[in-house]
Amino acid sequence: MKTLGIAIVGCGGITLQNHLPGLALCAETKVVALCDPNPAALEQAARATGVTVTSPRWEEIVVRDDVDAVIIATPNVFHPPIALGAIANGKHVLSEKPLAMNAADARAMAEAGDKANVRHMTAFTYRFVPAMRYLGHLIAQGDLGEPYHFRSCRLQDWGKRGLGWRQVKKMAGSGELGDMLSHRIDFAHHLVGPMRRLVAQTKIMVPERGGAPSDLDDWVAMIAEFESGASGVLESSKLARGRNEGARSLDYVELNGSEATFEFTTGKWNELQYGKGDGPGLAPLPVPREFWVWPGSPRDPSVGDPLIAFRQDQAFEFIDAIRNQRPCVPSFHDGARAQAVMDAGHRSSELQAWVEV
Ligand SMILES: NC(=O)c1ccc[n+]([C@@H]2O[C@H](COP(=O)([O-])OP(=O)(O)OC[C@H]3O[C@@H](n4cnc5c(N)ncnc54)[C@H](O)[C@@H]3O)[C@@H](O)[C@H]2O)c1
After folding, report:
1. For the residues of 244-280, what is the DSSP string, one character each?
2. pLDDT for 153-192, tens place per residue?
3. How confident is the model at residue 247 (pLDDT cuts 50, 70, 90)?
4. So what's the pLDDT on residue 266?
5. Rounded to whole angstroms, how far apart are CA atoms 193 and 178?
6. Residues enclosing ligand 1, CB less than 6 A?
7. Where are the alpha helices (DSSP H) in the chain?
8. Which value, in Å, is the radius of gyration of the alpha carbons in the chain?
9. Rounded to an integer, what distance in angstroms lies between the CA atom of residue 340 and that of residue 91?
10. Model confidence over 278-324: pLDDT tens digits?
11. Which DSSP string do the residues of 68-107 spell out, in sequence order?
């Protein structure tokens, strides 16, 4: 098996927390180059990996012959140019979410990836929660029946602290909508199908963070209608005081269908709540062991904090798709579909009206 050479562009938080540990589990896969304009971040990642090929400029990295694939983990504004640059050089690309600053750019990334016949993947990491994957399986086999309602609620406490590039519209594109709700929009698409129209509101509750202006939403809510006719209600906040910021803060999804109700919270990684018609109400439904890791992943589910470790299966999925020359799950197309809903959310909030997706 040929060793795959990986370049990492953007060596901040998510690279250290997730991409590097995930890649370390992948056989015959080697990080060969690192890019970050911040010398301290570059130095830290170089120390963690032992990689000596480094550059502050992604243009120097994506052209290298020893790079087969590129992982993009920069502020959102840089995802499209780096992805297009990497694809133009025939590299496979895993990009962080939100994929782009708008749906047109996200679609262009997906089309470029298809045309170049490279693998492309959006880092919708919560698809890899075992309970989420099991829920997808149960719904696909018809256990929900006809979907009536999708409901999600993500509540965190980020307080008033400074968020760096995340509080600057020209760097991030959107606040809570792109940062946190994008994952839940992807859940909704994955479990219920495409959204047709929606009404949304975003709010900047804290206009100054860490002594600098913040021009991005801290809170977002959306009512949506799916193409199937099902309804969706989604809410996400950075200002749920006292709920903490970490993986254990509320991340709740509920689906009600003609046959049953399923409830999922990320905090319960290997358990759903389930109730069926005329039953006594919701009761725990354990996630079978075969769903505890992504198919084929070498990760041992008993190692590490299960609320963090599932994320490492994402790197396995990317590498496995490259090896087997098949589409990644989720792909840039999934990223672009979520981005179209985000664009509609911003439009609706500005117009104070229902809009088509
Ligand atoms: N999938 C998830 O669950 C998840 C979780 C956290 C972050 N993210 C996403 O990952 C991305 C990075 O977030 P983070 O929390 O690691 O941010 P971060 O600020 O910790 O790291 C970003 C890094 O990118 C570097 N950078 C800036 N401009 C660059 C450029 N032009 N080329 C190369 N590097 C550049 C910065 O110096 C910094 O080191 C964002 O898109 C974010 O939305 C996703």
Report:
1. -SSTTSEEEEEEEESSEEEEEETTSTTEEEEEETTSS
2. 999 999 999 999 999 999 999 999 999 999 999 999 999 9
3. confident
4. 86
5. 19
6. 9-14, 35-38, 41, 58, 73-76, 78, 96-97, 123, 125, 164, 179
7. 13-14, 20-24, 39-49, 58-61, 79-88, 103-115, 130-140, 169-172, 176, 182-192, 306-309, 313-324, 332-351
8. 20
9. 25
10. 889 999 999 999 999 999 999 999 999 999 999 999 999 999 999 99
11. -EEEE-S-GGGHHHHHHHHHHTT-EEEEPSS-SSSHHHHH
Going by C-alpha positions, the residue among 210, 202, 185, 189 that lies closest to residue 238 is 202
Q: What are residue 58's phi and psi, to 5 degrees?
A: -65, -25
- Which atom belonging to ligand 1 lies closest to the Cα atom of 79? 41
- In whole angstroms, what separates CA 80 from the centre of its chain? 16
Give the number of other CB atoms < 10 A from CB of residue 162: 12
Residues 6+ apart with CB under 8 A from 310: 128, 129, 130, 269, 293
Q: How far is the CA of 78 from the centre of ligand 1 (A)?
A: 9
Closest ligand 1 atom to Cα of 58: 32
Q: Which residues pair with 203 in a beta bridge?
A: 219
Cα separations in angstroms, 173 against 16, 103, 168, 198, 296? 23, 11, 8, 19, 35
- Look up tokens 């046959």; give the residue: 259
State the amino acid at position 188 in one-letter form: A
- Token pair 């029946």: residue: 145
